[in-house]
Amino acid sequence: MFSAFERFVAFRYLRARRQEGFISVTAWFSFLGIALGVAALIIVMSVMNGFRHELLTRIIGMNGHLAIYSHSQSPPLTDYEALTAKIKLLPGITGANPIVEEQALATAHGKATGVVIHGITTADLESRKAIVDNLIRGQFRFFDRPNSALIGKRLAEKLGLILGDKITLVSPEGNATAFGTMPRSRTFEIAGIFDAGMIQYDSTFVFIPLEAAQKFYQLGDGVTRIEIFTENPENIAHYKQELQPLMMGKNLRLFDWQQTNKEFFSTINVERNVMFIILTLIIIVASFNVISTLIMLVKDKGRDIAILRTMGATQGMIMRVFFIAGSTIGTVGALIGAVGGLLFSWNIDTIKKGVEFLLGTELFRAEIYFLSKLPARVDPKEVFLVLFIALLLTFLASLYPAWRASRLDPVEALRYE
Asked: Is 176 or 245 the better-scoring residue by pLDDT?
């Protein structure tokens, strides 16, 4: 497509001589602008993908993909065992856990904080990878004890608790007595501490045995909901259709993770799209730099172009020479920017820790961003899309100056030489 002569002349023009230093500087700025734009776009998109993936994994890993509730607040679900058995037989269902979820006040060592109680069986708790893979202290076999409890790492730090310590849970609903309503409380022993990596769960969730939760909240043999896990949470609509026949004629409600966290994930998607558009403007600005660089190069090389034309170079050859010069800046800049963006994304948490060490401050606070570390997830399709956009813009930016160079009249260029 491009001859050796055209490539030689184009690369020669990119290596400006001393008297052409300004053109060389503008070419470098164009190159750096494209590289930084591509790198920034890849890094930001990777971080946004990482946020979405980590939050999705932790949210649905702790709460299930679907949840079945009773329509009325009381009585709770009482025939959950038969319903749970039928749900587990459906294709694509990986688990169904009846649980008791209620709020309580947790106190220990003179400190108190609000928590969310999850009453669950030992077998169901062990099937949850979000807890099993993140248990940092204790063992699941201790959870079989009637008064055992599993708590998050940040809750343990807040209340000053370690394995074997006691934690007192106070129900918001008290017992009616002759002297008025008395608060209902019960003491549990810490059997394990987990670190889910999400502050919302690590600081508020308390897991206790299902029977203990039923007695503590006076639910009898009932539960508050059934949490369901599927093979593909992204295809949640299919599983909802499969579950509908099992709920016919029963006073039940079905919610999925998308309904529960709709506003949360919608906000992330909007921010992701807006950031993509904003950072693409960096590449567009760099493309305009390519145009200005080539226009100055064409103006400076007017005499050379005229001599090449008189020696037999066609308009097409001249146009291809300057198109190669402009597209080379864009191609090399985009490729180097992509490599830099990928390396930065793959090592972003290490880089964050290094910057925090140098500045002596915390850049990524878990209390604000929900996660305990900065995530990044590179999507190959998005990387190729960014490269395609960068190359397309620089190729288009090279066309007009190259066309102008090809239309240069040799007679006019040499008239005053």
From this structure: 245
